[in-house]
Specification:
This protein is of the alpha/beta class. The protein has eleven helices and twelve strands.
Amino acid sequence: MMGEFPYLRMRRLRQSEGIRAMVRETEVRASDLVYPLFVVPGRGVRKEISSLPGNYHLSVDELVRECEQVARLGIPAVLLFGIPESKDAFGSGAYAGDGVVQQAIRALKQRVPELVIITDVCLCEYTSHGHCGVVVEDRVDNDRSLELITKTALSHAEAGADMVAPSDMMDGRVAAIRSLLDENGFEMTPIMAYAAKYDSAFYGPFREAAGSTPQFGDRRSYQMDSHNVREALREVRLDIEEGADVVMVKPALAYLDVVRRVRESFDMPLAAYNVSGEYAMVKAAAAQGLLNEKRAVLEVLTAIKRAGADIILTYHAKDAAGWLKAG
C-alpha cells in the first residue's frame, strides 16, 4: 500500500550529507549563541577556571582581547559576570560606578562596539554571604533587595550595557528595573529576565568560578523548585507583564520540557542557559574519551534550539562557533 514499506522508505532522505542538510529541520548558528564571561580586577589576568576548563577569569584588558576573538567568530553577544576585589553584606561592588563590570562595559564599547553587551544583574557575586539579595535575620528580604538590584541595572546601563539580565529571582524586580531605567532615560535598554530560574544542582562549577556559594542556607526560598512547570509559566507571564523583552529558562538541558512549554505558551524571544554543570559534564566525559566532544556539544545545542529557544547562553559558544564556521 502507498505510504507503507517498501513504497515508503524513510532512509531515502538520509543517504548523504547533502540530502540530510536539505531536509534538516533545526540548525544551530553562531548568531544564536551568547558567551558568558567572568571579569576580574587587575591587568594581564587570564587564569583558567578549574571547574570550567576552557573558560577564564579575565581582567578588563584580557576581556577585550577575548571579545575581539568572539566577535570574529560571529558570536553576537556576551554575558558579563563580575568578580570584585572585595565583598560586603550589601554587594556594593555590583552598583559601583567604577565596578569591574562597569569598567569592562566601557572598554568593550570602545574596542568592540559591534558586540552586544549583556550584563548579569544580581548581588551574589558581590555579597560576603553569597546570597542574591539583602539578608535580614538570616533571610533574604525581597523588597529591600529590589533597591540594590535596580541600582545595579541602572549602573550597567549608564556604563553602556546594551541589555541587562536580572537573575536574582526577587519578586517584582523586572517592573522595578524597567521603572528606574525609564525614569533615567534608558527606556530603550532591553531586559532579559531570568524568568524561570530553578534551584539546581547544575550550578556548582559557576559558584566556584564566581565565589558565590551561599555561606549559610540555600536559595530554595527564591529560586524555583525543580519539580514545577506550571509555576514556571506563571513566572514567565509575570515578567512579561512587568516589561521583560526577553525571557529565559535556566538551566536548559535538564529543563527542555520547560523550554518547550514556554515556547508554546508565549510569543516572546526565548533564551535558555546551558549552565556550568551541563558544560562540565560534557568536558569531563570528553576528557575521558567517553564521547566525541564536538558531536556532543552540537547535539546538546541543537536539542535546546529544537525545544524552542531562540537564544542559547553557553560556555561552549567559542568552540561551537568555530566548529560551525569550519563546517
